[in-house]
Amino acid sequence: MPDFPLPLPLTAFEEYMLWDDRPNYPMSIFARLKFSGQLDRRATAEALETVVACHPLLRAKIQGTSAGRWAWVPVEDHLPSIQWLDGSVHDRLPSMQPIDLFSEPGLRVWATADSQRSSLVLQVHHAACDGKGVVQILNDFLRSYTHVSAGKQSPIELSPCNPRALQGRGSFGLTVGKYLWMLPAQITGLLGVRKFLMRRPVPLLEPLSAVSNELPAGFPHVKVGKLEADEVRKLSATTAAFQATVNDWLIRDFFVAVDDFRARHQAIAAHEWIRFSIPMNLRRGSDNQIPAANVVSMVFLDRTPRQIADSSGLLRSIHAEMDLIRRRQLGLIFVLSLSILRALPGGLASRVNKGRCEATCVLTNMGRVMADSPLPRYNEKIVAGNLVLDGMDFFAPIRVGTAVSVALVFYAGELQVCMQYDSHHITEAQADDLLATYLRKIRASLDITSRDVQGKSA
Questions:
Q1: 341: domain range?
Q2: CB–CB of 387/39 below 8 Å?
């Protein structure tokens, strides 16, 4: 088993995720692998044990230190037990509860299996790792499961993993000298902080009722939609023709969908700020051996209904803003701000999650998941022993005041649009409406621009 690097103090972002956790709003990531074929119980358990041994933060809990800080410490009985569920629940997530990192590790696992279909579901506390880390865990699981189910006795070589690399996970490769060199470029980000503090984003809809301190029945509440492979190819070709990225395009269409949805469900004002929280992966090439962890930040995009009404101008502005964020590494501003707040009297615990709306929605693009897997494929889908991975669903957490999070998952040429919604704020029918609106706006924007491109060519 790899050495656990002790002591391991929490980074500012991990502490932010810890204090942002609430009994009625668990700061958990949910992921589901969907298979054709029957999961082998023994191979599943052995593969999971192998994976957890490689990722120290999955077998750790949090406790206080003598210096008055918080740190990860190993849990002796660290292996999560798999809860096997009846095969009839393939199409819905199990009912879940918050994870208490002060008494248990941040990973829970469920599985279903019958002769035709299987699924594996993870619940991971966001303080333990980010979305990329969850995908890393699942990638390792598939490789380990393939190895074990084939009856191989030799140890499997998973993706390179150095637990000692966790010690630098909160520095993002920055030294004082590097940050001072970057400081002139960061001025733009500091101006963005001023705007963030001055603007008050609106919630997606006003709450249906007073927000209870209890977890809603049937939590988590999720919806999944899809773009087929031919639509994804069309998306890639169209965005390239407009010199935009796929991510720019999907952010633009989500702004349009949210604005349309809000206009149909409540009165809106032209000056209101709709704000999206956009997670930003901060991994560098030198982070390729880091185990599952949080190497991530967030940026925030604000637009008014008047700005959203100009679809072409909206796309150009999003492309320019996201390009500036990447070039000047402005994703660092949020995590550096957390470090400053943590150093102030009262720390992060006194400043996190005041119960107000800080973002209308979350939109995270997971990219092409499992793209670098060495496992064989059938019709673009990964083959893991006796299983074919049909798809992956991913659900980002929601917080007080943010009614919806949407995760975009590209796999086997298709795009899964995975939504978690807050049942305090919107009904199931409204969640279906918003998801359908988003998919409809994407398809409509592709049809319109494709005709424009063809017209110009003619």
A1: 176-457
A2: yes
Q: Phi, psi at residue 406, to the nearest 5°? A: -125, 130
Residues 317 and 184 in one domain: yes
Which of 131, 162, 193 is the last residue in one of the domains?
162
* Residues 254-283 as b or e (16 or more Cβ within 10 Å = b): bbbbbbbbbeeeeeeeeebbbbbbbbbbbb
To which H or E segment does residue 236 belong? helix 229-241
The amino acid occupying position 442 is I
What's the rounded Cα separation, in Å, for the pair 82 and 94?
12
Amino acid 99 reads: I
**Which residue has tokens 């008494």?**
103
Residue 244 near residue 315 (C-beta atoms within 8 A) = yes
Contact, 371 vs 138, CB < 8 A?
no
How many domains are there within the chain? Answer: 2
Please state the pTM of the whole predicted model.
Answer: 0.92
Tokens 């705007």 found at = 195
Query: φ and ψ at 250, to 5 degrees?
Result: -70, -30
279: preceding bond cis by omega (within 30 degrees) = no
Task: Report pLDDT digits (tens) over 2-34.
Answer: 556 668 999 999 999 999 999 999 999 999 999
